[in-house]
TrEMBL record:
Pfam families: Glyoxalase. InterPro entries: Glyas_Bleomycin-R_OHBP_Dase, Glyas_Fos-R_dOase_dom, VOC_core. This is VOC family protein. It comes from Streptomyces antimicrobicus. It comes from the Bacteria. Gene3D superfamilies: 2,3-Dihydroxybiphenyl 1,2-Dioxygenase, domain 1 (3.10.180.10).
Length: 128
């Protein structure tokens, strides 16, 4: 069997809020809560399991999602409709802009726990 990423745990202040936030932006489903986790599964089978932890335990992480052009347009509209600040860069220095890296489009935004979320329409480098 080839090695695949199956799931990762995403620390949040409120697991339901963070899972619902990401699921809404990316037009994904929030799965059934199991134990301390609220899962959101991606199309390639990787599940983000949101877990509520004390705010001081949250270390900011980065999560990047490869989406189609149509999915980007739809997610971008949901981001703008909710008044979420978005950026062209991971250092959050270019607010209100998108990037055009690798011949595609990309942007960054923060989730309710402060994690850096990224959507891109073209993979970086030679990966895919």
């Amino acid at each position: 069997m080839a090695v695949e990423l199956n799931h990762t745990i995403v620390h949040s202040r409120d697991n339901r809020e963070s899972a619902a936030f990401l699921a809404h932006i990316l037009d994904l489903e929030v799965g059934a809560e199991w134990g301390p986790f609220v899962p959101v599964a991606t199309a390639n089978g990787v599940t983000l399991d949101f877990a509520t932890v004390p705010a001081e335990s949250i270390t900011t992480q980065h999560y990047a999602f490869l989406v189609s052009d149509d999915e980007f347009d739809a997610a971008f509209e949901r981001i703008r409709a909710r008044g979420i600040t978005y950026y062209a860069d991971p250092h959050l220095k270019q607010p209100g802009e998108i990037n055009r890296h690798h011949g595609g489009r990309g942007l960054y935004f923060l989730d309710p726990a402060g994690h850096g979320m990224e959507i891109i329409t073209r993979p970086y480098g030679n990966l895919g």
